[in-house]
Amino acid sequence: MQKVIVFRKMSFWTSQPDMLKLNQKIQSLNKDGWKVQSIVPNVSMVGAIRSFTLLLEK
What we know:
The protein is an alpha+beta fold. The protein has one helix at residues 19-31; strands spanning 2-7, 35-43, 49-57. The radius of gyration is 12 Å and the shape is flat.
């Protein structure tokens, strides 16, 4: 089974996604039996990373 999720939680201090929360989300998914197959950054028109798309597999 595969699943695609978009991680959008932004850091309080910057306009970038919060990497600490992303790592915590990945750990949580691993505990639930999901394995991350790929992580792709989604960028804005000016090239700033706005979110990440994760492909998961169980």
